[in-house]
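Thread amino acids onto this structure.
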């Protein structure tokens, strides 16, 4: 009996399930009764099925020759500016930039030998011969800041009392105070030597005159350790200010203007040069968006910009034709 009862119960359950299924197929007046999900649910289901997946971001086509060699001064590297600009350029264009940050003299030499594709440098008097010889082309003004003389806060040479950079250096020499030079034929070193010449002093061989042969950041650190004076671009000083004790003791003199140009190495003279890549990078530096980045770079961290954008200007706009 128990077994018969279980069979009857099971059969009834099967009939109930079958009946529910069958009810879903019955039509009254040509319309389905609960044969499909509610209209709203069906519509949502269809929309879900038809919604396309978001398209992947469009990637730039890979350039035929993707690697660019950029020879530049250490200040563009030490300030962190290139750490901001280069990733943006690479993402937008598909190029890969190999940066060689050396003194401007060395960067220009690399260009002269066809060992770089594009140059970002700051020694105008040394740049012009490369353009005149045809080694470099399309030289354009990118930005500027200025040079400053920094030294110990107590200023043992009395530099703060002077009004020109040449007078400041003369005071340092007269006091025999330590002056630390880059001594690396960089744009900063070239500027320093021109200021010594203006002051009528040859510091070479003096006990108080020391050369590092290194970049700006390293030279500032040496001057800081020795409690000496040095000439630096303002951008690198601001980037290292929190880590050193040296302060600005001389600034604002007209010869301390620090101008940066970009130049392409001429592919007609050096077939191995990546002319298209160099042009792309140079053009990128002069776009409105990049110039805006340069304008604001450093403001949030240091309270003032490290560089001032000069896209579309010429050197005479900054120097007054001098």
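Threaded sequence (322 positions):
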């Amino acid at each position: 009996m128990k077994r018969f009862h279980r069979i009857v119960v099971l059969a009834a359950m099967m009939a109930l399930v079958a009946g529910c299924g069958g009810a879903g197929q019955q039509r009254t007046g040509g319309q389905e009764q609960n044969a499909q999900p509610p209209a709203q649910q069906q519509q949502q289901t269809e929309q879900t099925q038809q919604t396309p997946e978001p398209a992947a971001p469009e990637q730039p086509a890979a350039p035929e020759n993707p690697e660019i060699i950029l020879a530049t001064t250490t200040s563009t590297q030490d300030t962190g500016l290139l750490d901001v600009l280069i990733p943006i350029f690479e993402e937008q264009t598909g190029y890969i930039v190999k940066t060689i940050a050396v003194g401007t003299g060395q960067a220009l030499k690399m260009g002269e030998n066809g060992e770089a594709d594009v140059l970002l440098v700051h020694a105008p008097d040394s740049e012009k011969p490369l353009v005149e010889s045809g080694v470099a082309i399309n030289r354009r003004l990118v930005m500027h800041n200025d040079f400053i003389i920094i030294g110990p806060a107590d200023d043992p040479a009395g530099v703060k009392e002077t009004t020109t950079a040449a007078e400041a250096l003369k005071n340092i020499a007269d006091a025999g105070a330590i002056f630390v030079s880059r001594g690396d034929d960089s744009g900063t070193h070239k500027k320093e030597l021109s200021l010594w010449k203006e002051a009528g002093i040859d510091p070479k061989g003096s006990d108080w005159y020391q050369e590092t042969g290194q970049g700006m950041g390293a030279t500032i650190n040496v001057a800081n350790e020795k409690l000496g004076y040095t000439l630096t671009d303002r951008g690198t000083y601001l980037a290292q200010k929190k880590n050193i004790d040296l302060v600005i003791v001389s600034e604002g003199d007209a010869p301390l203007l620090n101008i940066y140009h970009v130049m392409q190495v001429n592919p007609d003279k050096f077939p191995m040069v990546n002319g298209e890549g160099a042009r792309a990078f140079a053009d990128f530096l002069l776009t409105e968006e990049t110039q805006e980045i340069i304008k604001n770079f450093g403001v949030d961290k240091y309270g003032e910009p490290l560089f001032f954008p000069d896209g579309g200007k010429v050197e005479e706009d900054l120097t007054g034709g001098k």
